[in-house]
Amino acid sequence: MGRLITIHVFSKFCRYLSVFLLNFTTMRTLLTRIITRIMLTEPFTPAMGIEAGIHTEGRRRLVVGLGNPGMESTRHSVGMAVLGALATRLGVADCWRGDKHVSGEVIVSEVQQTSVVLLRPRLLMNINGVCVAKAARKYGISPEDILLVHDDLDKPLGKIALKHGGSARGHNGVRSCIDCLQTDVMPRLRVGIGRPADRSSVERHVLGRFSSEQKAVLDSVLVQSVDLLLSQLSPKDSKQDSQSPSSPAGGRQTAEKRMERKSAETPAENSAAAQS
User: Fold this and answer.
1) Model pLDDT, residue 220
2) Cβ(192)–Cβ(160) under 8 Å?
3) How far, rounded to the nearest angstrom, does the alpha carbon of residue 274 sit from its chain's CA centroid?
4) Catalytic residue of the set 8, 76, 101, 150
5) 168 burial class (0-12, 13-18, 19+ CB within 10 angstroms)?
6) Catalytic site residue 76?
């Protein structure tokens, strides 16, 4: 009899716990959206000086490394690592500057006569979209010209791929960008980090750091990622991108039905076996 009572109490506890967790998740999502809307209603300051000049010269591109500030070396912030490698390749790694108007750090550079803004958000991953939307507004950049770089659990370390718009596929940073920009047309460079091999939680995995063995693979991934970014930022590729079909604002269902085009199956994939 006592055993049955214990089982009943435990079952009731699990039921209440599941309801609490569901409500907690819902409340957290709602709170995130409220914070996002408040931050996006802040007064807009027009660009000045060199920032104003970017509005008058041809096509402009925005490259964003999604991640968490202060946690740049974690798997979840690998997009920031790629952006840092791109800045180094362009010779502007020492030019990062904080910009309170976009809640992030920016570099204004040029790639083969294409004006490029590099952005490292200074807000948490779940609201990275606020920084992206503010930067797009400040520099007059269209959503289809925003290239998001982020981690991907469903790809092993050593594999990267380019996705042309579509759903967030469970990535909170990408979801935030879609919500804030009100469209899902932004191309994304997805950098594989793999799923945890053991039973450790996904959250612990993405917020963890790469092992020494994985860092060797990551070095190759960074090189390949920068190569791909530069090819996408060149004028001829930009022109091709502008002619590619894109979903309208809020057209997530259409985008989800669209076949994912992978323009990069890089040699870095061959290094995936080296991950621990």
Assistant:
1) 96
2) yes
3) 25
4) 76
5) middle
6) yes
